[in-house]
Amino acid sequence: MTPRPSGGRLVVVSNRVALPRQSAPGGLASALQAALRERGGLWFGWSGKLAAETGAELHRLHDAKIDYATIDLSRADHDSFYAGFANGTLWPMLHYRPDLVNYQRDHLHGYLRVNELFADRLRQLIARDDIIWVHDYHLIPLAAMLRRRGVKNRIGFFLHTPLPAAGLLIALPNHRELLETLASYDLIGVHTARDLRALEDYFLHETGATMRRDGRLRSANGRLFRAAAFPISIDTAGLAGMARTAMSNKEIGQLRDSLEGRLLIIGVDRLDYSKGLPQRFQAYARLLERAPELHRRITFLQIAPPSRGAVLEYREIRRELERSAGHINGKYAAPDWAPVRYINKSFPHRLLTGYYRTARVGLVTPLRDGMNLVAKEYVASQDPDDPGVLVLSRFAGAAQELTDALLVNPADAEEVADALERAINMPLAERRERWNAMMAVLQKNDITAWRVAYLQALCR
Ligand code: GDG
């Protein structure tokens, strides 16, 4: 057991709550589940269900050490808050895609309305000593709303996405009204030093905040708060163990048999334009085009569970990838070999770790990613005696830590194809050396270290 940074109960708030035994493809759910499993606490947020009215009823559940409290959303609130402002406006903006931003004033109003409802419900659930930890871009103004309701508790915020430079952020209509509310938190956590610089720069140059000598920021209206980088991680030891036992699963055996000795390249991503999937498929096609000797020797398995189907861009990318996978197979497949296996389905984590371990190459090439847990999970799942190689985008937060991966620019098909070729041909000694270095990073900074570091800083 790790020591508690403070005696108070931990109250985690996120848009989506991963209820027990739900397999939830998503980094926030994976990480918070692992973080709460050990520390215990209350997890409050949306149930994932729709109802006639937002927040009319509070659903309670207790499992292991976690209390769950969830509310439903009305269809209208879901459309404006979740699909509209959070995922149609903020998500593309935070992922450096102003071209995809769809801004509508009524979506912003829906976003603020749902945050007010969250604040009302949460207000009734918290006690004086509770430490409140709010997650992600869906809930930016929540602390300000809680403060207005008289809440004096420690409140921390963690942003799971990247934060682009101020020059881009200011393109968001009403950015200051929204982003300045972050000053109501006591601690703002981001993944990397680059995100932190962007946050400080925004506050100092766009809002008139100042930096004090002790490193705290003072907002234009005098509130003191801190910002720092806490690279999120995984349950490294747990996943390594899971991967080891997964190998005796029937499903993993079936995958291995089906490969007939071919090398497996694996990608696992929510179906999201930020993950660089079309570019990844193009790079793989480029590899097949220029290296005919690899035909029949390799297979690329891409698992991409659908996500946010209510947002147009997500439906479009799904169609685009179906075309692309079909095109590659149409062009290169043989009667007994398909170069791409493309699956729009979610698998239990237990199986994913076995798939990762079966793959010689982990191909993780987001255009932008706050951290990217799949990269870390791939490394943790490897067989120490015969580890695979990680090919990783420079624009994933994980690239700051996993410097022994083969780092690539995902937009450069030639560079990705080079890295794939190098990974496929890499001698065992070099694979081991790189894997050991990456695994050491993940053993030191696992999900427990992340949670403890954050909560210690929040309670300081
Ligand atoms: C956000 C940020 C940041 C995937 N397919 C299945 C499945 N997954 C799990 C993976 C992994 C998680 O989902 C994905 O996490 P990522 O970090 O890769 O990406 P996002 O969902 O975009 O996460 C990201 C993260 O939050 C944490 O801060 O790293 O940058 O965008 O755990 O294993 N899980 C299951 N079935 C699947 O088919 N059960």
UniProtKB/TrEMBL annotation:
CDD domains, per this entry? GT20_TPS (cd03788)
Record key words, sorted: Glycosyltransferase, Transferase
Q: Molecular function terms in GO for this entry? A: alpha,alpha-trehalose-phosphate synthase (UDP-forming) activity
| EC identifiers of the protein | 2.4.1.15
Q: Which superkingdom is the protein from?
A: Bacteria
Q: Reaction(s) catalyzed by this protein?
A: D-glucose 6-phosphate + UDP-alpha-D-glucose = alpha,alpha-trehalose 6-phosphate + UDP + H(+)
Record has Kinase as a keyword: no
Q: In which pathway does it act?
A: Glycan biosynthesis; trehalose biosynthesis
Q: Which Gene3D superfamilies match?
A: Glycogen Phosphorylase B
What is its EC class? Answer: transferase
**The keyword Cytoplasm is assigned to this record:** no
Which protein family is it in? Belongs to the glycosyltransferase 20 family.
Q: Which PANTHER family match?
A: BCDNA.GH08860, TREHALOSE-6-PHOSPHATE SYNTHASE
Query: Per its database record, what is this protein's job?
Result: Probably involved in the osmoprotection via the biosynthesis of trehalose. Catalyzes the transfer of glucose from UDP-alpha-D-glucose (UDP-Glc) to D-glucose 6-phosphate (Glc-6-P) to form trehalose-6-phosphate. Acts with retention of the anomeric configuration of the UDP-sugar donor.
Record note on quaternary structure: Homotetramer.
- Report what the protein is called: Trehalose-6-phosphate synthase
The protein's organism comes out as Rhodanobacter terrae
Q: Which gene encodes it?
A: otsA
